[in-house]
Amino acid sequence: MSNFSFPRQTAFYKGKVRDVYTIGDDLLVMIASNRISAFDVILPRPIPYKGQVLNQIAAYMLKATEDICPNWLEASPAPNVSIGKKCMPFRVEMVVRGNLTGHAWRTYNSGLRELCGVPMPEGMKENDYFPTPIITPSTKAEVGHDEDISREAIIERGIVSEADYVQLEKYTLALFQRGKEIAAKRGLILVDTKYEFGKIGDTIYLMDEIHTPDSSRYFYADGYEERQQKGEKQKQLSKEFVREWLIANNFMGKEGQSVPEMSDEWIQTISQRYIELYEQVIGEKFVPEELSEEETFRRVVGYLGK
C-alpha cells in the first residue's frame, strides 16, 4: 500500500500493521494493512483481507461498547479505514487475562508465580480460568519490544497518574466483561485481550482496535471443559497459531533468527483463519471488498470534506 497525502495532513506514522495519518490536530485516519506481525516483527508476506477483517471487527466492537467508555472512532468510510479523534495516548497497554494462556502460561510454566506484580495461584494448568481476570500491563514501546510492567511501577514512574490508572482498570475490566458476553453468544470464550487508551482534555477515550484476532485470543466454548480435563490443546481463534508456527520453526524475534519461508498455502490458511474469526465473532458472512487505492483515497477525502 502506497503512502497517501490527504488534505490538511500534518503527520504520518507507519506502524507494524496500520498506517496512521494525522489530519490537522484533531483527527486520525487509520488504514489497516494486510501486514502481519508477531514477536514485534513484521512478517515478509501480507495476508489477504486481514486489514478488512481487523477494521470491521474493531468498528463492530467499539460500537458495542460505547456505553461503557467513550471511544475514538467516528467513521469507517472504507473496509480497511477508520477515522476518529486524535487523543494523547497513555504509554501503556492494558492487557487483561481471563485464562492462563500464552505469555502468562510461558511465565507460569517457567516456575514463576507472578506476572506484572500480580500473583498467579498454584496448581493451575495451561488454559485454566483465573479465579478473576487479571490485568498485566505492558509499556507501549515506540521501537523494539513492549515490556511487562507492574501497576505500582506505572504510577511510581509517573507514566499514568494514580487517578487515571484506577479509571483505566475499571474500564478495562468492564470492557473485558462485555467482550466475554458478546463472545459467549457466539459460542466463544474471550481469553485475553489488550486495550489502549488516550485523553482529550480530562476525558479518557478507548483507542485503536478492540477484540480483534490481533489484539485478542478466543477459544471455542464447545468442548472447552472436556479438553481441559484431558489435557488437550484448546481449539482457538487468534493469532497465536502463527506464533506457534514461528516458534516451531525456531523464530521468536530474537537477534540472529530468520523468519521461516511462508508458502502460498500457509498464507491462505492464515487468511481463512482471520475470516473464520470474523464470521464467528460477528455472526455474519464475511464479504471481501477490494478497493483500489484511488477509491480508498476518494472515500476518505469525501468524509474529511464534510
Tally of contiguous helical segments = 8
Largest sheet: 8 strands, antiparallel
Number of domains: 2
Tell me the β content: 25-35%
CATH level 1 class label of the largest domain: Alpha Beta
Q: Which blocks of ≥5 consecutive residues have pLDDT under 50?
A: none
Which CATH architecture of the largest domain?
Answer: 2-Layer Sandwich
In total, how many beta strands? 17
CATH topology label of the largest domain: D-amino Acid Aminotransferase, Chain A, domain 1
Can you identify the CATH superfamily of the largest domain? ATP-grasp fold, B domain
**Shape annotation:** globular
Care to give the gist of this entry?
With 306 residues, the chain is α+β, with helices and mostly antiparallel strands.
Architecture overview:
With 306 residues, the protein is of the alpha+beta class. It has helices at residues 50-64, 102-109, 151-156, 162-185, 224-230, 240-248, 264-282, 293-304, and strands at residues 9-14, 18-23, 27-32, 37-38, 41-42, 73-78, 81-85, 88-89, 92-99, 114-115, 118-119, 129-135, 138-139, 188-200, 203-207, 216-220, 236-238. The protein has two domains: 9-88 and 252-304, 2-Layer Sandwich (Phosphorylase Kinase, domain 1); 89-238, D-amino Acid Aminotransferase, Chain A, domain 1, CATH 3.30.470.20. The protein has eight helices and 17 strands. A hairpin with a 2-residue loop joins strand 14 (188-200) and strand 15 (203-207). The radius of gyration is 19 Å and the shape is globular.
